[in-house]
């Protein structure tokens, strides 16, 4: 199957990055959001990211100014699901909520052409549970990108027990055309990375609650001690505490193991609406984005 037109559902942290990368790779992209204001916000993020890549320059893996404008000319935002009807692949990157995802995939299934591939960027929800909301289980896969999408090379390509082999191969080749390195995995909760990463991030919160160190001490320790580009609290705020919180519930439901349970502090930050960078405050306060101030919660 030849993919030409890409639909992306959601223009948030991940949807905007996926749309940007697909447009840069030469695909026509239509991004669906529930309100124009989210498209405007997501497209502003794309503008910022593309400008950084132009500043970096093609010789260092960035872009030329021409490539930036070509990318933006291939991007279209819409709040009308009908605009996705002729897409060859639709990549869903909406809120990590199974009911919302199932409802949206079912609506799309009735509109989008029958041979289109459906992909979900879910971090933790069973791809099988999402595919059953549609009448195209054999054309449904997981394409799990990493944040920030323009910078992270890897995509987990997730097959279910129903995925048709030629659909899986088409999705795998599509990931390569996006300039990504695909990794094959199957529909197990958390796939590969989050199965290992989420317990680490939650343990960092528990270590902090137990007084092992301050937020910055723990961040610095993991950066300087293990060479991580971001410490766990910086990464949690980067991923989004709301998304992380949703992921912990899905993973705890699956494994019923304490290491996947949300620490009390994470729940309180989310209840307070402190979602991290995206809301201006999480484990750090981003009033001055260049100098985030760590919170003191214990
Ligand atoms: N778009 C374009 N360029 C970007 C960018 C973006 N979004 N983010 C960073 N860059 C560029 C910067 O312009 C900079 O380029 P120059 O060196 O030319 O100035 C370069 O990348 C480095 O950026 P920074 O100086 O801001 O900081 P950094 O060196 O730390 O790199 C980072 C930023 C690539 C995000 C790095 O911090 C990193 O890799 N962090 C870890 C991210 C991570 O772990 N992601 C996975 C999260 S888990 C997940 O995604 C799965 C899930 O389901 C939750
Ligand atoms: P986000 O909150 O930044 O964006 C979600 C977007 O979905 C919002 O803009 C919202 O308006 C939109 N949305 C919600 N319901 C919608 C609907 N019915 N139709 C259209 N748009 C709708 O979240 P995010 O961080 O981009 O996460 C999106 C998905 O990607 C989640 O499944 C998440 O688990 C996954 N993911 C997140 C990360 C990360 O680091 N944040 C990494 C990999 C995968």
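^ structure tokens above, recovered residues below v
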């Amino acid at each position: 199957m030849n993919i030409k037109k890409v639909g992306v559902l959601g223009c948030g942290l991940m949807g905007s990055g996926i749309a940007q990368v697909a447009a840069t790779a030469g695909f026509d992209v239509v991004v669906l959001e529930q309100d124009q204001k989210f498209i405007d916000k997501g497209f502003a993020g794309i503008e910022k990211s593309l400008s950084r890549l132009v500043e970096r320059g093609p010789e260092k893996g960035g872009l030329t100014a021409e490539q930036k404008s070509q990318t933006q000319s291939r991007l279209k935002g819409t709040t009308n699901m009908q605009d996705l009807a002729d897409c060859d692949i639709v990549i869903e990157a909406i809120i990590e909520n199974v009911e919302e995802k199932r409802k949206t995939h079912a609506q799309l299934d009735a509109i989008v052409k029958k041979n289109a591939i459906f992909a979900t960027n879910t971090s933790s929800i069973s791809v099988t549970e999402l595919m059953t909301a549609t009448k195209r289980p054999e054309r449904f896969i997981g394409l799990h990108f990493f944040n920030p999408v323009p910078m992270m090379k890897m995509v987990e390509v997730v097959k279910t027990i129903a995925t048709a082999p030629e659909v899986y191969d088409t999705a795998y080749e599509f990931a390569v055309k996006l300039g990504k390195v695909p990794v094959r995995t199957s529909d197990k909760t958390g796939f590969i990375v989050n199965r290992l990463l989420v317990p680490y991030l939650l343990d960092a919160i528990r270590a902090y609650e137990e007084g092992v160190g301050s937020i910055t001490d723990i961040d610095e320790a993991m950066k300087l001690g293990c060479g991580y580009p971001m410490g766990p609290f910086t990464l949690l705020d980067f991923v989004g505490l709301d998304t992380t919180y949703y992921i912990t519930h899905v993973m705890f439901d699956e494994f019923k193991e304490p290491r996947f349970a949300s620490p009390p502090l994470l729940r309180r930050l989310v209840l307070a609406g402190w979602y991290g960078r995206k809301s201006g405050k999480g484990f750090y306060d981003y009033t001055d984005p260049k100098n985030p101030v760590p919170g003191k919660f214990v």
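Residues 9-15, 32-34, 38, 93-96, 100, 104, 121-123, 145-147, 239-240, 243, 278 surround nicotinamide-adenine-dinucleotide (ligand 2) (CB under 6 Å).
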